[in-house]
Design a protein that fits this description.
- It is built from 12 helices and no strands.
- By secondary structure, the chain is mostly helical.
- It has a domain of about 200 residues.
């Protein structure tokens, strides 16, 4: 145990001693970072499981309620702009079913684990940063202040966008979509299917909103440049359209545009970030 502590001190020191560590030593340090991250997720998941009833009623089923905040804001905005009920969503009736004896319990575990992961994301980012930090030079560390905040900020911003904007549009469209005029289809999706869709939307949007941070890192490493992003802008937009189609399970263009527009804005912000990084690098070289 004392030897493991020595490994950690050497890696954290940042004074060049980490170069003396062997590959196995680095794996040992990485193992402890992973262990702490997993423990944080598990502790958060346990807390979520204790309050699973409240979380399910308020958070998980929130986008399916007709009085959900997103529906109310859109409808009130429509009335304020004199557009009548054009932005008001039609009522949604969503009855979920469970088709296996363990379905309810396994869904509770899924909610707790995903909730624990979301809650512990800043700590997980911090553990990753602690492992990577000793490999950076002092000049590089100077430009990475607040990185944990910004990475977490963009992730939670994307997750909130997916939950409050994309999920309501998706569920409302899918639940009111019908085939034929005879009314012979009984729409009763499973709880697992609903959870998978909600998780994919929320986590997918959170990851997609990390585009500015990914651009910052790749620019620092010299892999991409502002000119590269500008020259391939039209191809990037096509990729963003494909990404929007993947994130949004619903096939309607309205939901996909809701995703594409923020991604395009993030791409343009990424160009500004890359330009700023290159400008600072040029000033340093001069």
């Amino acid at each position: 145990m004392e030897e493991n502590k020595t490994f950690l001190r050497r890696l954290r020191s940042g004074d060049g001693e980490q170069s003396e560590m062997s590959f196995i030593d680095h794996l040992e340090v990485l193992r402890w970072h992973i262990v702490r991250s997993v423990l944080a997720i598990l502790i958060s998941a346990i807390l979520f499981f204790i309050y699973i009833d409240e979380i399910f009623d308020i958070v998980i089923m929130g986008p399916t309620r007709n009085d959900f905040i997103s529906y109310r804001v859109l409808c009130n905005t429509s009335h304020f702009l004199g557009m009548g009920d054009s932005l008001c969503m039609p009522p949604m009736k969503l009855n979920l079913q469970v088709t296996s004896i363990s379905g309810t319990f396994m869904s509770s575990i899924t909610i707790a684990v995903v909730g624990g992961l979301l809650f512990a994301i800043p700590f997980v980012f911090y553990e990753v940063w602690k492992f990577v930090r000793p490999a950076l030079k002092p000049t590089e560390l100077k430009h990475t202040r607040g990185i944990i905040f910004w990475v977490s900020f963009f992730f939670f911003l994307g997750a909130a966008f997916g939950y409050f904007m994309l999920a309501p549009f998706t569920f409302n469209f899918l639940s009111n979509y019908t085939i034929g005029a005879m009314g012979v289809i009984d729409y009763r999706p499973t709880l697992a299917d609903y959870l998978d869709t909600l998780i994919d939307i929320t986590l997918g949007a959170g990851i997609a909103f990390e585009l500015p941070m990914a651009t910052w890192l790749l620019s620092k490493l010299g892999i991409i440049t502002p000119n590269f992003l500008r020259n391939y802008r039209k191809y990037a937009y096509v990729v963003l359209l494909v990404l929007a189609a993947i994130i949004t399970p619903s096939p309607d263009w309205g939901s996909q545009l809701i995703v594409v527009i923020p991604l395009v804005l993030l791409y343009e912000i990424s160009i500004l970030i890359a330009s700023r990084v290159k400008k600072k690098q040029d000033e340093t070289w001069e």
